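ESCALATION

Customer reports they have been waiting on this structure for their group meeting. Please prioritize. Original submission:
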Amino acid sequence: MNSRFRSGVILITAVLGLALAGCGGKATSDPKTPEDDVPTTRRAAAQAGIEPMDTVRLSYGLRGSEEDFRKCFMRSMESRGKVNVQFSVDDTGSVHGARVLMSSLGQAHVEQCLVDELLGLDFGQQPAPSINHFTFVFRLTDPLNEKKRSALLKKAARRTNESLKILPESAGTIDLNHVAEVVQAGYPLYAHCYRDSIQRRGESRGVVRFKLQLSESGAVSDLADEGSVMPDPFAVDCMAEAFYLMQFDAPSQAPTTLRYTMELE
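Update from on-call: job pushed to the front of the queue and completed.
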């Protein structure tokens, strides 16, 4: 596998990008929905003995439908935000009960479109029924012209010593080696984001830099862009969705806030 890990920075080559696949997420709250509704529904599902689908299986089940989901967002191009949905999948792979838990879009027709697209998916035969959550992210970053992107890449190269760090405002802490290991193991969740970006733009060299907030359970409860520089903004959205699927160890105290940088070659 053509990849290297250095001080929290992941260097992914085109070979790796073509070899792996996946993508996923979580969202900010809309005024009508409490921020803690998602962990509450997860706890209720666990108590009922219904587990979520394996994240890689979930990612593969969503592959091939990305364009359909993006078309939903295209209905409101001025919008920017995230939509967290909950849905169940029975043992035949059919989707039921899809609903929006949290949204920062404020665009009901876009949210309904996402739900409708989910209800039309077929995940194939499953080992057991599951209750799942996924966050769709739209316009986390804006397109950059080539001149500006080149200048920002040079600037970003001087900041690689900040590739993985707990931020000063963080209430808690977490083992950074553990964070690095989880992200490395998450290659299948986001590598196809990179591959698809190459197919759309011809190349996808750049930097993805996220500010992550971890909840008391170790889930990513919030994510913001911290200066990503990519030729394809859809790739940044896709990778943000993947980070929302990752599960870390419980931090010492919540929320724990850190910055993570991936350098893509």
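Sent to customer with the following note: The first strand starts at residue 3 and ends at 6.
Escalation resolved.
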